[in-house]
Design goal:
14 helices; PepSY domain-containing protein; membrane; seven-stranded antiparallel β-sheet; transmembrane; alpha+beta
Amino acid sequence: MRRSDRSWGKAALRLAFLTHRWAGIVACLFFAMWFASGLVMLYVPYPSLSPAQSWARAQPIDWARVTTGPGESGRRITLEMRGDLPVWRIETVEGETHIISAQAGRKPANVDADYARRVAARFSSAPVDSVERIGDDQWTVAGGFDRHRPLWKATLADAGGSVLYISSLTGQPVQRTTRTQRFWNWLGSVPHWLYPTVLRRDNAAWRQVVMWVSGPCIAVALTGMWIGILRMRIGRRRYRGGRITPYRGWMMWHHVSGLLGGVVLTTWIVSGWLSVDPGRAFAGGRAPEAAAHAYAGRTGVSVDKDRLARLAGNARSVEWSGDGGLKRIAIDRASPHPRWLDQASLAAIDMHHILPCKGRWQAEGLTEGCPGRRGQVLRRPGTPLHHASHGPPPLAGEERRAADERRSAPAPARPVEEVASAAMLVPQGRMIAVERLSRPDFYWTDAARLPLLRLRFDDAARTWLYIDPMSGALVQRQDATRRAYRWVYTLLHTWDWPWLTTRRPAWDAWMWFWSIAGLVMSASGVVIGWRRLRRPARREA
């Protein structure tokens, strides 16, 4: 090796030592915070209120007072109650929301403090201590609440110290926190995400802070791995006493824990940095705006109100939609068991009979069976269509007949529309496969949204579309970059591999093991750094 090469190597090693020694003092403080707060987040997630929880105590529709239609079409139209008044909530393809009285045909009165108080009392069955109007706070600062601002914050006099947030747009609860959630989130998600309200209000500034705090921490982690490997001796070259490390005390703990978990710990730091997608490298493609609007469609309300009222019963919401050309009515869509009707005939639609076959959504008994290849549909004579790769196999004999009798809603009297309409969302490609997902897999982990149809295209971006088989709505678009992001961020940061997450406490043990290794490494680094900073002061004394 030439002398110049050796000098460059020594300079690089010295730079690595200096970076790890001095930047590591601050980085280890962040590491310790992230590992400790991450353990909290395993069991206490950031507060949220699901649509089902929000609608659980909503008032049933007063059909006698529904005297006028919405007066306009929209992507989605929902009939619901605002206090004693039925209203139409009209969502346009442009993302706007309009509220119209279903009795008077005009905009209803604004949601005020008195109305918010009544909603909070009905939701919780507890006295309401106070109601105040806010723009945001620590638990409503995310952009998903923007359309509901200003919010009404209702403090409840219950044992859990609950706080409920009411939308000024819809009059429905959109967030709820309890005293326990707030306490643990101040130790969990808030420090972990660098999420104080004053910073998170400016999304661009918050992203920059996350990138420039976690970025140098990556350099500390990588230089630490390099130095740790260089200082390790195995085989016959071990240090005195057969030790693999030359260090003792806190330095030994820091070295060994870094060697043990260095790779996993570094992937956590790198994936955390990727959480804000620096440079938007994993943003993925989007459908042309005109195609997205065309697919979303428009729907109106033109049905026999009295018949629909009888079918809906004590429904809290009735929703009309037209995504993908499917004209549907959803009764209590936010409930665990919504009912679906065809808009034209008001015939019930059974989700269990909607399955993909040869590029179509088919209903039981209306088409020939499909070949039994993976990702397609199997059908035996006299049995329902069945997807070959997801869900339980078809029942036979008495079991099948008993299962059929338990189904309360009949299959539609005709085939439903083709999924080919989704092709307009990927104009550069051709649909090459249709799958029905009835349980989570590696690229779709949210069981609450299942079943879904997954449509695969052969375009350059290798796009996948996830479609709600009942409403036809586009739930998610994934291309190759988004699936890569699933690997480099979501998997490496949360380890939400279905095989592992469905085998708890194995997943808990995995997360705890590496988190403890990270805590030992970072805590020992804090102690070492503190002692190094105190050395000059001791010499001066």
